[in-house]
Design brief:
The protein has 272 residues and is of the alpha/beta class. It is 43% helix and 14% strand. It has 9 helices and 7 strands. Helix 3 links the parallel strand 2 and strand 3. Bound molecules: nicotinamide-adenine-dinucleotide (NAD). Nicotinamide-adenine-dinucleotide (NAD) binds next to helix 2. Nicotinamide-adenine-dinucleotide binds next to helix 2.
Length: 272
């Protein structure tokens, strides 16, 4: 009988079914924009499942609050001041993580900015600013992490926080944001294909509207908030904590055959 690569792979002891499927003990995660919202919840979630977490954020106060949440789970936490709009800081943060924790196994590219302006009024500077954070920063964080993962030779995980707005349009004046997130969804596929040979699995999550600072202005407008809530099959916005499970799944042994995928966490927004 011919033994193909899949059959050989499946024979490894790691595929024994047990409750450690989601265990991240011994893994080192890096999360951008970890000071609040989805990023802070993800940092705590990764720590709850055993990972040590480098919390990358611009603000030391809020960043260190997240570090405390990480440490409360018995994991190691480290704040690293990082503006992903500044490319030198991206690679420096990966180097700092390696200096402190010895390795990088998981990168969550969460940092992002919302931006609305009628498409006919957007300036080149506004376009560049949104793209610099949501797309360019995400790409160069991924590059810096992947170089480290390739050098380690044990694969890795990159999880990009995209959006439902990477797949559908809206009338909300968010064209630049839509463009940035659409690019993240397809960049995810491209990186997944390119880095598969290094067993670096690259996926994205696509949240619907989540109750964070990013949607605070919408939440204060009852008519608009109601309209947008009804676009989710579940009839409401989600909580940051509801994004955590998808990230744990994509970080863990539970998803060893998942790459290039965008996992919607959107209360059914894109289901109809
Ligand atoms: N809230 C939503 O409805 C929603 C929906 C879909 C996708 N998302 C995405 O989720 C991610 C997190 O957003 P959130 O909802 O938690 O909003 P948020 O505004 O609370 O958090 C965004 C985080 O990114 C950080 N950040 C922004 N610019 C940065 C930069 N240049 N360098 C480093 N960090 C930077 C912020 O400091 C903050 O920690 C973003 O990528 C966002 O686009 C949010």
């Amino acid at each position: 009988m011919t033994i193909n690569k899949g059959a050989q792979f499946c024979a490894q002891p790691q595929f024994e079914i047990n409750r450690a499927l989601f265990d991240l003990k011994g893994k080192v995660a890096v999360v951008t924009g970890g000071s609040r919202g989805i990023g802070a919840a993800v940092c705590a979630g990764l720590a709850a499942f055993g990972a040590d977490v480098a919390v990358l954020a611009r603000d030391a106060n809020t960043g260190n609050q997240t570090v405390e949440k990480v440490q409360a789970f018995g994991a190691r936490g480290l704040f690293i001041a990082t503006d992903v709009g500044d490319l030198s800081q991206c690679s420096r943060s990966i180097d700092r993580t390696v200096a402190e924790f010895g390795r990088v196994d998981i990168l969550v590219n969460n940092a992002g900015i919302g931006f609305t302006s009628p498409a006919e009024a957007v300036t080149p500077e506004e376009w560049d600013y949104v793209m610099a954070v949501n797309l360019r920063g995400l790409f160069f964080m991924s590059q810096a992490a992947a170089k480290q993962m390739i050098a380690q030779g044990q694969g890795g995980r990159i999880i990009n926080v995209a959006s439902i707005f990477g797949i559908v349009g809206s009338e909300l004046g968010a064209s630049v944001y839509h463009a940035s997130k659409g690019a993240v969804v397809n960049l995810t596929r491209a990186l997944a294909c390119e880095w598969a040979k290094h067993n670096i699995l690259v996926n994205s999550i696509g949240p619907g509207f989540i109750v964070t600072d990013m949607t605070a202005a919408i939440q204060e407008q009852p008519v608009l908030a109601d309209l947008l809530e009804r676009r989710h099959a579940l009839g409401r916005f989600g909580c940051p904590e509801e994004c955590v499970g998808a990230v744990i799944f994509l970080s863990s042994r539970a998803s060893t055959f998942v790459t290039g995928e965008n996992l919607f966490v959107d209360g059914g927004y894109t289901a109809w």
